[in-house]
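Colleagues,

For the teaching module next term, I've prepared a clean inverse folding example: a structure given as tokens, and then the sequence designed for it. I'd like students to try predicting residues themselves before seeing the answer, so please don't circulate the second half yet.
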């Protein structure tokens, strides 16, 4: 449950890149805080750079930072988004998490194969409909 520490690596956005950067299918696994059973799936993380761009491996590190705790998927999604918004200060940031919860498939309703999808978007991805649509299309979740 302890994440590996990491240094935030950013670089000056000297070229003025202002389009979406999306990392898809980042593996994520955590423990449901209600049932102490695992949930696992993928995270899709994107942002529109402002003054700085992020070392791409750091997107996966941020996912892991918050997944290494007793969690609920909704909070995990907003923690990743909020951290990136605070530390990177992009024009926009978005996170989509898709996960299978063993607390749903092993107990209670036993809904094997059910997948839970959560999302959180900030800035341009929240307020500009075209940017928001592009983000969800690039993550493969805008069906």
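(Answer key — instructors only)
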């Amino acid at each position: 449950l302890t994440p590996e520490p990491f240094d935030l690596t950013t670089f000056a956005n000297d070229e003025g890149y202002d389009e979406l950067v999306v990392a898809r299918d980042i593996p994520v696994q955590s423990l449901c805080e209600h049932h102490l059973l695992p949930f696992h799936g993928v995270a899709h993380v994107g942002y529109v750079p402002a003054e700085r761009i992020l070392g791409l491996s750091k997107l996966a590190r941020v996912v892991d930072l918050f997944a290494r705790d007793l969690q609920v998927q909704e909070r995990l999604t907003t923690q990743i988004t909020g951290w990136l918004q605070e530390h990177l200060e992009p024009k926009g940031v978005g996170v989509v998490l898709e996960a299978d919860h063993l607390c749903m498939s092993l107990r209670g309703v036993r809904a094997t194969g059910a997948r839970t999808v959560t999302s959180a978007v900030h800035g341009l991805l929240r307020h500009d409909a075209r940017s928001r649509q592009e983000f969800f299309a690039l993550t493969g979740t805008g069906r």
